[in-house]
Amino acid sequence: MTQSTLIKNAQIVNEGKTIEADVMIQNQHISLVKSEILASPKDKIIEANGQFLIPGMIDDQVHFREPGLTHKGSIFSESRAAVIGGITSFMEMPNVNPATTSIEALEKKFEIASQHSVANYSFYLGATEDNLEQIKLLDPKKYCGVKVFMGASTGDLLVEHPQALDAIFRDSPILIVTHCESSPIISSNLELFRNQRRTPNITDHPIIRDTEACYASSSYAVALAKKYHSQLHVLHITSEKELALFEPGPIESKHITAEACIHHLWFTSQDYPRLGNLIKCNPAIKSPTDRDALIKAIHSNQIDIIATDHAPHTWQEKQAEYPQAPAGLPLVEHALLSLFDHVKHKRLTLEQVIEKTAHNPAKRYGIENRGYIREGYFADLVLVDTDKTTNVNHQNTHYKCGWTPFDGHQFSSKIKSTWVNGQQVFDGNQVNEKVSSSMRLTFNR
User: Fold this and answer.
1) What is the residue-wise DSSP string for 295-343?
2) How many angstroms separate the CA atoms of 378 and 421, rounded?
């Protein structure tokens, strides 16, 4: 039976322009985009009333904590929060328990997502110093990429040996994404505190994990990618100095790309006294100058993609003393709203937000038929009302961890509806958990 939804009178933000038009959804796909579409009796009609209709955000960096860490979050709980926030597709990281370092473990996560995810999904294989043969087996059409922790990680997922890194950059058949911080520099910075016989606190976090630690590692990754002409995407750039490593210009012409994350575009080192460990993350949130440089780099296209690095921990875990408190914060529910605030304050344009959160992730990863409002594409859509506000507090968030760094903030817009593959999974008030419309992402590379 054909299911059809007609969205009337929307301001469609897509491919660098905003137009007023109607959109017809039939089954999973967008069937028609036109200035006026006449409704039939079988159509479900959504009156947009001039609200903004955008492609759903494709978040290429999340930590949903399943398997093994589900007291913090699960694929169900965090994907549910994601669609409430207008994220319709995600790519999830391998640092779970056990770590996702084999094709077998990777497919087990896909199986969990097929049963429980509310949004579309893909998962990274984690690189180790001895799983090159598994990396070589990655099919570029089935998997999003391989994640390399180039320092500043623990356990099997730390890859520091030069020969192992050379082999990965030389032989990976798929996009390499990197976390770039230099463990030796971080250790050296910590040693300074030990020499001073002073225990560091949260305000020291960007001093310990400083610009030099990031630059040393990210410049190494870029050099390897140039040496082997690898496809490289450097995650969560945080410092002005690192931006010099990346070329401006359209993403289609690049084999080395860069990303900024929501929290590094919003918070600065001035927020540590107020928020403490709640904004402890790796790499660290840095100075206001660094934050402003990242925003400027979005305009120059040195930053190609905006993601969340959503990484929930329980409230209790975050209350530990600084050295023991885990790094990461929950972000998927309020990521798009924070970007709409940037638009309101004229730091970004709406077209730039859509390019960096939907179009460019689709291009960089070669995602099939997503990331745009185009006829024949999957109907992954979000309706945003910029005349309504969203008040945030711990009680009304939907993360399993039960808290948010945006507590007490009033965002200037509201997510009114989210569609995943043509199904309305969020109506502005509640998630339709009976709808099982999510799909495994596929790639055309």
Assistant:
1) HHHHHHTSS-EEE--B----HHHHTS-TTTSPP----TTTHHHHHHHHH
2) 5
pLDDT tens profile 429-441: 999 977 679 999 9
Q: Is the pLDDT of residue 151 over 60?
A: yes
d(CA 411, CA 310): 19
> What is the Cα Rg of the chain in Å?
21
pLDDT, tens digit, 9 for 90 and up, residues 38-75: 999 999 999 999 999 999 999 999 999 999 999 999 99
283 upstream amide cis, omega within 30 of 0: yes
Dist CA 111 CA 117 (whole Å)? 10
> CA-to-CA distance for 439 and 146, rounded, in angstroms?
20
CA-to-CA distance for 290 and 284, rounded, in angstroms? 11
Q: Which residue carries 């993609």 as its tokens?
A: 305
d(CA 117, CA 120): 7
